[in-house]
Amino acid sequence: MPTSSPTRLLQLASGLALCSTLGLTAALGQTKPATAITVQVNKPGAPVSPIMYGLFFEDINFAADGGLYPELVKNKSFEIQGQHFIGWNALLGAAALQTYTVTTDRPLSATNNHFARLTAAQASPNAGIVNEGFRGMGVKQGAEYTFSVYLRRGPGNVSGLNVTLEEQGRPGSGPVAATAGRVLAQAQIGGLTPEWKKYTVVLKPTATAAKAQLKLTMEGAGTLDLDVVSLFPKDTWNKRENGLRPDLVQLFKDMQPGFLRFPGGCIVEGRTLSERYQWKETIGDVAARVPLINRWNMEFKHRSTPDYYQSFGLGFFEYFQLSEDIGAEPVPILNVGMACQFNSSELAPVTSTAAAGPSAPEAHSHDDDPTLETFIQDALDLVEFANGPASSPWGAKRVAMGHPAPFNLKYIGIGNEQWGPQYLERYEPFMKAVKAKYPNINIVSSAGPAPDGDLFDKATKRLRELKAEVIDEHYYASPEWFRKNAGRYDNYPTTGSKIFAGEYAAQTVAIGSPDNKNSWDTAISEAAFMTGLERNADKVTMASYAPMLAHVDAWQWTPNMIWFDNLRSYGTPNYYVQKLFSLNKGTTMLPVQLSAGARNGQDNLFSSAVADDKTGDIVVKLVNYSAEARPVTVALQGVKKLGKTGKATVLSSPDLNAVNSLDQPLNIAPQEASFKVSSSNVTYTLAPNSFTVLRIPGKR
C-alpha cells in the first residue's frame, strides 16, 4: 500500500491508530486475524497501590556528588582521609608556591579539622592551586555561581585571593597541574584577617563550558589558609541555597513517582561497618558534614574510581525534601548491622538488650564498634527526626534545618540486600523494636539479591511468618528472563506480605558487565514484565528500576535509567517505560483474558489493564515483542458508557539495539495520537516491537 498521511489512515481505518509518527505502518490490507483481548470492566479487581511505581536512588556512578548534588568543587574541605588534596593541584610556574599542604593547626571546627595552607616566598600570579571539579565543572553562560570560602591570613603580606573560573586545558596528574583554557569569570577577595572568616562572591561565566576548572591564587607573599571552598550554582531546584540540579529533578518529577527509595543500595551497607552510611552524619550544617570514601570507588577494576567519595551535601534532610518536592513517599533504607556480604560480611553483634528510646542528638558520636542496638536506635531516631514534634530531640533538629512540619514518614527499610540466617536473626529484633514504638510504620524487608534459590525461599517463608508488610525482591537478568517471567506473581498468595520489586533492570550482556546497554530490547522486555506486576496489583505494591543515575564520564555500573554529563541529561528507553507505567497506573486492576485461553505473553503479546477512576478512563497496556505489526481487538466487557476518541501513547523502534544518547535524547520516546472508539470492541494495530498505552474514556 502506498504511504499515506496519518489523518488519511485514521479516516480509512476506524479505530486503528496507524499514525506514521508512532511507527504504526501496517497496511490496511493486513490479513492476519486480530488477537482478541477481553478486559473485564464489570469485574474490577484489587486497588492499584497509589505508590506503585517509584524511584530508586543510590550514590553510584557519581549520582550525588558530581550529579544530583551540584557543588562544583571536588573535596571542598580537604577532609578525605588519606587523600586530603584529591581534586586539587598546584599551579605550574617555577615553584611559585613554596609549600602547599593540608594541616590541622587551629582548624575551623572539630568536625571540619583539616584545611589547606599555602605559602609563597614572593608574589606570583602562579602562587595558587586549581580544582578540577567532577570530571570538569559544567558552567553556563550568563548563569550565576556563588563562590564561597573560609580564609585566614598567616605571616607575610598576603592581601587577597584571586578567583578565576577557566576552561580546562589538559588535565592534571599528581604534582603536575592542569593547564588552563580561556578565562570565563574572575573576582578578587580582600579584607583578610588573622581569624577564620567566610567570604562570598558571585561569578557569572561569559561562555558555556562543560569542563571548566577553578583557580585560586594568592595576592602577595606569605601564608594563607583556606577551607570549605565552594562553587555552587544559583539555578537549583526551587532556587534553594543547598539545592539540587534542576534538570535531573525535573526528570524525576515528570514520572510522577509514588515513592523515593534512598540512599541505596549497597551504599547503605559499606564494605565494612565503619564505611556504612550513617544518616546522623549527613544532617545539620553542610560545612560540618564529614565526607566518606564511596564504597563503589574501587569495586570494579574495569571502572576504578579512586576519587569517588560522599560529601553528604546531599544528606537525609535533602532526601526527605526531594521526596516532598516530587510528590513521592520517602522510603529510607537503613543498615541492619551488616556490612556488604559481597565484601567483608562484617556483622554487628546481637545482644540481649533492646533500644528503649530516642537518643539525644548531642550524645551522638561515630561508633566504631556498634552492636545491633546502635542500628535499632538509629532507626528509632530517624522516625523521630522525620515525624517528631519540635519538642522532641530529633524533631528539633529537623525544625532547625528549616522544616517545621513533619515529613510524614510511613516506610523504612531494614537492610538493603542482605541474605541468610545472619540477616533474619537481626531483622526480627530490629522489626519488633520499631513496631513497638511506631506501630504504624510499614517495614520493608529483604529477600536477598537473587529472585530464586534456597536462600530466597527460606527468607520469603520466614518473613511471611513474621508478617512482614513488604518484601523487597531484586532481579538483574537478561531481557529474555523478564519476558519469560511476566507471570512471576500470578501464583503468589493474595494475602499477607506484599511485594516490592525494589531493584530490576534487564542486562544486555551480563550482570555487572561494562558492556551493558540501555537498549530498546531491555526496555520493551521490562515493559512486558511490568504488565505482570500490574496484573497482580493485589500482591505487588511497589516497583522501581535500578540504578537511576549515571555520569557518562564517571560510571561504575551500567545499564542506568538516566544518564547525564556536566550540562545535559536524558532519559533512556527504560526511563520512558517506567514513566508510562507511572503516569498510567490507574486506580483499580481490571482482569484481562486473551483469546482461546492463551496465557499472557504467549506469542510475545503481553497485556494488562486498569481503570482510572480519577479520569474516567480505561487504560490498556500492550507489548508487542514481534517484528511484525499486530492487529488486536480489545473487548471492554460490561462497560457502561464510552467516549468517541481514545488516546494512544506508543514507544517503538524497529531496532531492538537502538538507544538514546546525549545527542539523540529522544531517539526512542513516547509519541501520541488519537483513535476512534466506535463500540465496546476497540480495534487497534500494534506497531512492531512496541509498548502501547491505550486510554479509552469509559464508565464502569
Automatic annotation (TrEMBL):
It is an enzyme of class 3 (hydrolase). GO terms for biological process: L-arabinose metabolic process. Residues 502-690 form the Alpha-L-arabinofuranosidase C-terminal domain. Residues 1-26 form the signal peptide. SMART domains: Alpha-L-AF_C. Transmembrane segments: none annotated. GO terms for molecular function: alpha-L-arabinofuranosidase activity. InterPro entries: Alpha-L-AF_C, ASD1_cat, GH, Glyco_hydro_b, Glycosyl_Hydrolase_51. Its EC number is 3.2.1.55. It comes from the Bacteria. Pfam families: Alpha-L-AF_C, ASD1_dom. It catalyses: Hydrolysis of terminal non-reducing alpha-L-arabinofuranoside residues in alpha-L-arabinosides. Keywords: Glycoprotein, Glycosidase, Hydrolase, Signal. Belongs to the glycosyl hydrolase 51 family. PANTHER family: ALPHA-L-ARABINOFURANOSIDASE 1 (PTHR31776). This is non-reducing end alpha-L-arabinofuranosidase. It comes from Hymenobacter luteus.
